[in-house]
Design goal:
The protein is of the alpha/beta class and 376 residues long. It has 15 helices and 15 strands. The protein has helices at residues 31-44, 70-83, 103-111, 126-132, 138-150, 169-181, 199-205, 214-230, 249-255, 282-290, 303-314, 323-327, 331-346, 361-364, 367-374; strands spanning 2-10, 53-62, 86-96, 116-122, 156-162, 186-191, 234-237, 240-242, 260-263, 268-270, 275-278, 296-299, 321-322, 350-353, 356-359. The longest helix is centred in the middle third of the chain and has 17 residues, at 214-230. It starts with a strand and ends with a helix.
């Protein structure tokens, strides 16, 4: 039986983080209508997968899923369980902000089947949290992790941002030390990225803020890799680190070319052949779903698109890109890519490990540039 994933996008936040470019709204007045539309979309897209399909991973992202009320959770779960078949060992993740986590909320999430949390800690440095426009404190993050452990969650992840101008490398090391002392099962560590349509992006355009220096970001990335490796974490993807193989199954499915359904405004889907994107507007989404239409854009994938997608995702993983898979491409594709790989091997950005080409430490620092050299 085939296994797939489902992603539910909750497009609401109480506040806009200065770096975030995901689709969300801080206007919560139409949340009831949008939740109802999500439920209806789940019903309308129940045939996205064939009948011999098990949902192996369920992920609620956003936005801020921890904003949902009990009745909203119960409604969405009822719709999902009515229209899809879930594996008995389904990985069910929800993204949460530390300030939304309480013993009561944890008990409820666990009671409805949530077995994995993704906690938006970002940094344990109070001035940096203010700079990012996060609305929790370092103490709330630590209290959150204490409560998560006490509630019996053994599978959870913490988000960490490096390359924040206010956070020195020494301070970053302190933060990582604190997280590793908790033995957090999974850590996702990302460089601060300045996206055009964000508050930070506008500040850069107005010359009121500078993009973090590449050397500073690279130094902090190396510190993250060194500190987490020294604490027993496996860097199984360039931004993801796991203790005892506590991999994020849902994210891993993206890197393994497994189909997934995305529900909600701004969500993306992949059926194994083509990609689909949902309109990024809450009001228009609600109106369309209420009228019985699904406001999707189809992205028909050509062979070179599928090739590029697999390169983009697999080169970032510990496993790497399959040599035999590349050699099965057409003559033109194979020659072009293998020439680039030979150069990258000679320059020390890649190594060959049996049938796989993998990024070296040097290669990880320039992963985006290296990936571009392998695309068609």
């Amino acid at each position: 039986m085939n296994t797939v994933g489902i992603y539910i996008h909750i497009p609401f936040c109480r506040h806009a983080c200065h770096y975030c470019n995901f689709h969300f709204s801080t206007q919560l007045h139409n949340k009831p209508e949008l939740i109802a539309a999500l439920g209806k979309e789940i019903q309308m897209r129940s045939t996205f997968f064939d009948k011999n399909t098990l949902v192996q991973t369920l992920y609620f992202g956003g936005g801020t899923p921890s904003l949902l009320e009990r009745k909203e959770w119960e409604y969405l779960i009822q719709q999902l369980q009515t229209h899809f078949t879930f594996a008995s060992d389904v990985e069910w993740t929800i993204e949460v902000n530390p300030e939304d986590v309480t013993p009561v909320s944890l008990s409820f999430w666990k009671s409805i089947g949530v077995n994995r949390l993704s906690i938006g800690v970002q940094t344990l440095h109070a001035p940096a949290l203010t700079f990012l426009n996060r609305h929790h404190t370092p103490n709330q993050s630590l209290q959150c992790m204490d409560w998560v452990i006490q509630a019996g969650f053994t599978n959870y992840s913490v988000d960490l941002i490096f390359g924040i101008p206010l956070v020195t490398t020494a301070r970053l090391i302190e933060d990582i030390k604190t997280l590793t002392q908790y033995r957090v099962p999974h850590i996702s560590a990302y460089a601060l990225t300045i996206e055009p349509k964000t508050y930070f992006g506008h500040q850069v355009t107005k010359n009121k803020m500078q993009v973090p220096e590449e050397e500073f970001v690279a130094e902090q990335f190396e510190v993250v890799m060194d500190c987490l490796e020294a604490s027993g974490y496996e860097q199984y993807e360039i931004s993801n680190y796991a203790l005892n193989r506590s991999y994020a199954q849902h994210n891993s499915s993206y890197w393994q070319d497994i189909p997934y359904l995305g529900v909600g405004p701004g969500a993306h889907s992949y059926d194994g052949q083509n990609r689909f994107s949902m309109i990024e507007n809450n009001a228009l989404y609600i109106r369309a779903i209420q009228s019985g239409s699904i406001p999707l854009t189809l992205e028909e994938m050509k062979p070179e698109d599928r090739y590029n997608d697999i390169i983009l995702t697999s080169i970032r993983t510990k496993t790497g890109v399959s040599k035999s898979w590349i050699e099965n491409r057409s003559d033109k594709e194979r020659v072009q890519v293998l020439q680039s790989i030979d150069i990258l091997l000679n320059e020390g950005f890649l190594i060959q490990n049996n049938d796989y080409y993998q990024l070296t430490r040097k290669g990880k620092l320039l992963a985006d540039e290296i990936t571009l050299k392998l695309l068609l």
